[in-house]
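Can't paste images in this forum, so I'm doing it all in text. The chain is below; anyone willing to post the predicted structure tokens underneath?
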Amino acid sequence: MLYGHLIPNLFASLICAIVVLLGLLETSSASVIKIWFSSVVILTGIRLSFSALYHLFPQQQRMHLIMFMLGTTSAAILWGIVASLLMPSQLIGQTIVIVIIAGVSAGGMQTLNANLLASWLFLNCSVIPLAVWLLRQSAQQYQMLGIAMSLYLLFMMVACYRNHRAFMQYIHLHFQNTNLLEALKKQTILDPLTNLYNRRYLTEVLPREMKRSQRENSGLCVAIVDVDHFKKINDTYGHDVGDEVLKAIGLTLKNSFRESDYVFRLGGEEFLIILTMTTLTDAKIKLDKLREVIKEIRLFFKENTITSLSVSIGVTEAAHNTQSSITLLKEADAALYAAKNAGRDRVNAFVGA
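Text version of the structure:
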């Protein structure tokens, strides 16, 4: 954020320094002006290197802030030197210096509004020497102009504060909106009961993972998990207990697979798992372990204890051809019904015709 507008600002400052060089070369000490201009060029190069380091190592925030403040303060001091040490005796040269410093200070304030301290340092170091020089002159016109520059500095510092506050409010609002969008996105892709992915998100994920599987020539399996005799649980203990059973099984599913896999609640007592980079043989082993883990679940509700939970699982493997996601889901569903018809509490793999 600090370096966001630095490069354009540095080039604008360099152009202003060239104008000062050309305008004062004939009215001030040529050697001193050249030394000052060389210092501006060197400092510009140093600040550009600071910007490059920031983009290479953005995690070093404290170091970058220190370097940024040093570069900003040094640049402001160089501009202050123009007024305090290099002010020409001719009116035209003085006018050039006053106009340039006023413009540079205003530009610096606008560019540095992300950091209030940097804005105030730049303003004070660049404007105060000019205001002091004007106030020290014997002519009343210069003194009046010095008072005007002092008021200019005061008003600019107030403007700095207001700009900084408005900028920070904008940043805060931006992050609030970003967090809100993320929360809304989660609401659209997560099942509210189990906090697993929902069917809507499945239509986005499955085609994408199938394409990646085909592209990388890696295995991809889809399994549908159905809680056995779930209607009996609802009828016996009530829907509140049934919801807790679904939550417990959903948590077990979520903890049983890798971050690269996906677990969905399709609706009711059905869940779906996408196992990436997994062959059918490995998928059956993992799913059979899952089935055994679910059988160990014990849930206690008031005077009731829920035990002997079991699931039926149908699994299929995506072929590396033009097979659609709908076909893959139908295969997993067919394998599930075969598992239920064979007596439930088992894993069944789809066998093609």
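The first strand starts at residue 220 and ends at 227. The mean pLDDT is 86.
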